[in-house]
Amino acid sequence: MGKRRRIAAHGSDTRLPTGSRPTTGRALPGRAERRKLARRVKTRRQRNAMKEIPILVTVALVIAVVLKTFLVQAFVIPSGSMEQTIRISDRVLVDKLTPWFGSKPQRGDVMVFKDPGGWLDDEKPPPDNSPVLIKGAKQALTAIGLLPSADEQDLIKRVVAVGGDTVKCCDQNGKVTVNGMPLTEPYIQPGDAPSTISFEVKVPVGRYFVMGDHRSNSADSRFHLQEEYSGTVSQSEVVGRAVYIAWPFGHWTGLEQRGAYASVPDPSPAPTPVPALSNSVSPRDLNGLPRLPSPAELPLVMGVVGLSRLRDRRSHGVFARSKEWMWGMWRSAHDPDTTIPRRDASSSPSRPNP
């Protein structure tokens, strides 16, 4: 019996509710005490979880704001100006990181930019009549990038020409040309012509000429040719480069089409301007007279002249002493009675008497 009791006691589960075993030789807690201890442990874990939830939410919000501001932002497409490439209600991801490192949109890229002025006057969003709480929730979600903003005046178009390019429509085949090279544009909405508006624009440096892929349904740069910069968009107005369609998954695709512009030559360099007169203190006399030093240049000229005279004086003294020494050497070689003067540091050599 004693042996059986010892075996049963050894085989029983002596673990505490925390999962550990007792290390002392004290009596094990009863069933009621173990349940009470288990409830305490469960309550403590729930309290710790409740404390961590606000921290996790705060971290998630900070990450969302950082992503939206500096890295990637999602935009909802409300119009059909970019069909069939981008359809209504598609979500596109816009790269906002690489512009911080000097990256700029190139020909064939799709970019999102602020309204240059008056492009969206006819597309004012309807007023939001939602209750105050719902409106506040929408504004909070918009601030962190989970909802699109209804009042942001942003547009999305494709870059056709960059600064320095000459874009023209149309050639004899009805195609748009950039720097004289006709474009083959596979992204244009089927059935649309490259353009029904004739134009020729020299794009200023630092600006972009943009067009929608649905050319018959896009009020792009072609509709603002009479404005100050011929409908081009400034680099400072660019929000970022649209890289992918993120939603729905069936529309997932890249958006850049740089291959269509691979054969476009670089724009011809601008003629070198004729240099103007220098901005010196004393301008050059156009009549050909010698230029006199100005009061600001006079101390410099005097210093240079003084150093030159001092150098000439020293070199002349050394040359004279060397000449006299050589003359004495020649006379001593032909006349043994002639003595060679000593070259002493305290006295300069003199010419011997004949």
TrEMBL record:
Q: What is this protein called?
A: Signal peptidase I
For the Peptidase S26 domain, which residue ranges apply?
Answer: 55-247
Identify its membrane topology class: Single-pass type II membrane protein
Species for this entry: Streptomyces corynorhini
Q: Where is this region: Disordered?
A: 1-45, 263-292, 335-354
Q: Which UniProt keywords apply?
A: Hydrolase, Membrane, Protease, Transmembrane, Transmembrane helix
**What catalytic activity is recorded?**
Cleavage of hydrophobic, N-terminal signal or leader sequences from secreted and periplasmic proteins
Record's compositionally biased regions (Basic and acidic residues): 335-345
Q: What CDD domains does this protein map onto?
A: S26_SPase_I
Say which family it is in: Belongs to the peptidase S26 family.
Gene symbol of the encoding locus: lepB
Membrane-spanning parts: 53-77
Matches recorded under Pfam families: Peptidase_S26
- Provide a GO CC annotation, any one: plasma membrane
GO molecular function per UniProt: serine-type endopeptidase activity; signal peptidase activity
Question: What biological process terms from GO does the record include?
Answer: signal peptide processing
- For this protein, the Enzyme Commission number is 3.4.21.89
- Organismal lineage: Bacteria, Bacillati, Actinomycetota, Actinomycetes, Kitasatosporales
The main enzyme category here is hydrolase
Please state where this protein is localized.
Answer: Cell membrane; Membrane
Compositional bias per record (Basic residues), positions renumbered to this chain = 33-45
Q: Which residues form the active site?
A: S81, K157
